[in-house]
Amino acid sequence: MILLALCSLVALALVIFGAAALIDPGRMAHLYGIPVEGDPAHGFVRATGSRDLLIGLVLGATIAYRDWPLIDVMLAGGVLLAAGDFWIVYHAAGRRFHPAHTMHAAGIVAFVLILAMALFAIGR
């Protein structure tokens, strides 16, 4: 089913981005849209990376069990998470749009579309 594949792709992307933030926080901060320097700042990037990693693993497990109501909740949470991340990096960049912010905007769109598909698929 294409919906499970899309949900799995999102979960995998979260795991990859989360692991990358733990391994190389400087590079991921740049991709995130707010380049940071120094160990204290890298700690925040690692914190968001561990959050993304955990959410990706939980979403993956939820998909494996095909628990559709929980998948819907996880996807709705993903919409809020991506929107919150976009708001944070937009304001951290001095309220200027930076090309790296498109990652967060794309996350919002992806979560909304997949959530709409999931809700349609189960007739909600």
Walkthrough of the structure:
This protein is mainly α. The chain has one domain (2-121). It has helices at residues 2-23, 25-32, 39-65, 68-92, 102-121. Helix 1 packs antiparallel against helix 3 (39-65) and helix 4 (68-92) runs antiparallel to helix 5. The longest helix is centred in the middle third of the chain and has 27 residues, at 39-65. The mean pLDDT is 89.
Strand content: under 5%
Taking the alpha carbons of the first and last residues, their distance comes to 18 Å
Radius of gyration based on Cα positions: 15 Å
Structural class estimated from helices and strands: mainly alpha
Number of domains: 1
Q: Could you tell me the mean pLDDT?
A: 89
| Overall geometry | globular
Q: Helix and strand succession? A: HHHHH
What count of helical segments does DSSP give?
5
Which residues form runs of ≥5 with pLDDT under 50?
none
Helix share bin: over 70%
Largest sheet: none
Per DSSP E runs of 2 or more residues, the count of β-strands stands at 0
Q: Which features characterize this protein?
A:
124 residues; mainly alpha; 5 helices; 82% helix; globular
Summarize the structure.
With 124 residues, this protein is an all-alpha fold.
Please give the structural blueprint:
Blueprint (H helix, E strand, L loop, with lengths): L1 H22 L1 H8 L6 H27 L2 H25 L9 H20 L3
